[in-house]
Amino acid sequence: MSKIFVVDTNKNPLNPIHPGRARMLLQEGKAAVWKRYPFTIILKDVLPNPQIAPLRLKIDPGAKFTGLALVDDATGEVAWAAELEHRGFQIRDALTKRRQLRRGRRHRKTRYRQPRFDNRKRPTGWLPPSLQSRVENIVTWVRRLQKLALISDISQELVKFDTQLMENPDISGFAYQQGELAGYEVREFLLFKFNHTCMYCGAKDTRLEIEHLLPKSKGGSNRISNLGIACRNCNQKKGRQALREFLAQKPDLLQRILRQVKQQKADTAAVNSTRWALFNRLKETGLSVEVGTGGRTKFNRCRQNLPKTHWLDAACVGASTPLKLKVSGVVPLSIRAVGYGNRQMCQVDKFGFPKRGKEGKLIKRERQKNYFGFQTGDMVKAIVPTGKHAGTHVGKVTVRKSGAFDLTVAHVRLQSIRWKHCRAVHRFDGYSYASLSTNVEFLND
Fold first, then answer.
1. Is 69 strand, coil or helix?
2. Residue 400 counted as domain residue
3. Angle at CA of residue 107, ends 106 and 110, nearest 5°
4. CA-angle at 74, arms to 302 and 76, nearest 5°
5. Percent of the chain, pLDDT > 90?
6. Per the CB 3.0–4.6 Å rule, which of 1, 161, 210, 287 could disulfide with 189?
7. What are the two backbone dihedrals, phi and then psi, of residue 168, each rounded to the nearest 5 degrees?
8. CA distance linking residue 35 with residue 20, whole number of Å
């Protein structure tokens, strides 16, 4: 079961405890709620000489989702887990749209400044904003978890697939490339490359086998560039035929497979581009950082008969994974990066020109974000005494200058909620939270 974080009166982290124990401390008045996400309580008394067991933070970074897990190496218990959803592709699309609008204005020769590309210089180690956001999101949550639990080590899945070692298995000095892990590395890479489907018939819900595009009987090798993935029926039907010979009557399918063999995955490129930047940032924390591969992660997960999820992959990262993980009852927290809005004050139309109101004035956003001590995105508890919305509601607030807020509760928008009836539950921090068990946001106090 997911445990509850505990800190003492000086905000020093203690051992996470069972939810039942946390409930008793709250009911007895010995503790108070300190944070809602992740749920943390703070003790009102000082504990003399507490015995704190260190935890290992495991990270499975991905292009869209990153798995996080806190594991006790001594007992194999997963104390806490989460899945972090990035907004890198959203940032990429926003930057692309902005670039298109600016170039369109320049090409129309409207009144607009000239491009100043010669004045730009990228520093060493520069990453595009869409990739840098992934690194910053993970580092942010590493720092947050350090304040809530005693973390002694970090395990990171650094190398997703090392294709150089796969093509030359004789390279020595890498233990994960030897023995039974070698097959996991190659097979996992091919499944990822061909989207877990047969490259000939597109079958998904069946056992897939490694396929040689040019058979070994005709001089084909075991290089990754000569390997594919296919179901048993297609593999046996192809037999010892070469790929071009087997698909001579299907030129469209042949060209698609040849393109897919050479195609570079956007997700793979994103992970490979940020892996070392993330590793260096994690080293700056001063903790010991263990690295592992995707093949090692899958080997550990399959050995324990665990389903494939981002947080379970994170729990299985690295050679330090216990022989038996205790994951029963763990409810992972879903964390989605939503950002803090944009800084564009003037609203524009689809052509990139400023919008104007009825009187011809530019439509601009308000500079002030906080009204009456609340900000859009805060989670509040509203106790409305009268009116059609009378009752107690917990949800996300949209602030208004007039003091009549909008409250979103379970995807239902309640309008004209006075600010005097609202009490802050969780301040907006750039992330949205939900429970992976029901995928419904926590809206109960």
1. strand
2. yes
3. 55
4. 30
5. 42
6. 161
7. -130, 80
8. 17
- Under 8 Å between Cβ of 313 and 166: no
Segment 241-296, tens digit of pLDDT: 888 888 888 889 888 888 877 765 566 667 777 888 999 999 999 999 999 888 88
pTM of the full structure: 0.76
Q: Using 50, 70 and 90 to split pLDDT, how confident is the model at 351?
A: confident
56: enclosing H helix or E strand: strand 55-60
Distance CA 334, CA 332 (A): 6
Q: Is residue 239 part of a domain?
A: no
Q: Write the single-letter amino acid at 100.
A: Q
Whether the CB-CB separation of 188 and 295 falls below 8 Å is answered with yes
Joined together, the tokens standing for residue 417 give: 């909620």
Spatial neighbors of 138 by CB under 8 A, at least 6 apart, are 59, 61, 66, 84, 278
Residue 3 lies inside a defined structural domain of this protein: no
Say yes or no to pLDDT of 142 above 80: yes
Residues 6+ apart with CB under 8 A from 270: 63, 88, 130, 131, 134
Q: By residue range, what is the domain housing residue 410?
A: 370-432
Round to whole Å and give the CA distance between 349 and 35: 40
The three-state secondary structure class of 96 is helix
Q: Which of 311, 37, 18, 15 is nearest to 151 (CA)?
A: 15
By residue count, the chain amounts to 445
- The CATH number assigned to the domain holding 406 equals 2.30.30
- Structurally, the chain folds into a number of domains equal to 1
| Distance of alpha carbon 9 from alpha carbon 197, whole angstroms | 54
Say if 308 falls within a structural domain: no
